[in-house]
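Handout, section B. The chain below has 136 residues.
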Amino acid sequence: MAINDLPMLAALRTKMQWHQERQKVLAENVSNSDTPGFQPRDLVAPKFNSAGQLTASSAGGALPMMMTSASHMKAPGGAVSFAEDRRAGFQTRPAGNAVNLEDQMMKVSANQMDYAAATSLYTRSLGLLKTAIGKR
């Protein structure tokens, strides 16, 4: 078993992937803040069990297929890798846009801080494991 296959490190990698995907979704929300009828989206945070594995409710496909154009057919079972939070914002402009820029910027900031924390924890955990086996 490689060091990178440990459940704790796999959970941290999954968490970092979630933060990267969430950053894309939040950036789309900000870029569409003036698009009439646009509803903001967000991702549901992954949940882990005590063994560091994703719970069934938050696990997506291991390697989902991607659609690069809206005209492509959706693959069966090929959903996004993380569940979407479809709760709409509470403020909707007359044009139907529900993006609140202040709310989105706070989410982006929190997402960046959480990603930095997960990255730091991953790096330190890997360093501790290397020290324990005498690779440093």
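Note. The longest helix spans residues 101-132. Compare this with the example in section A.
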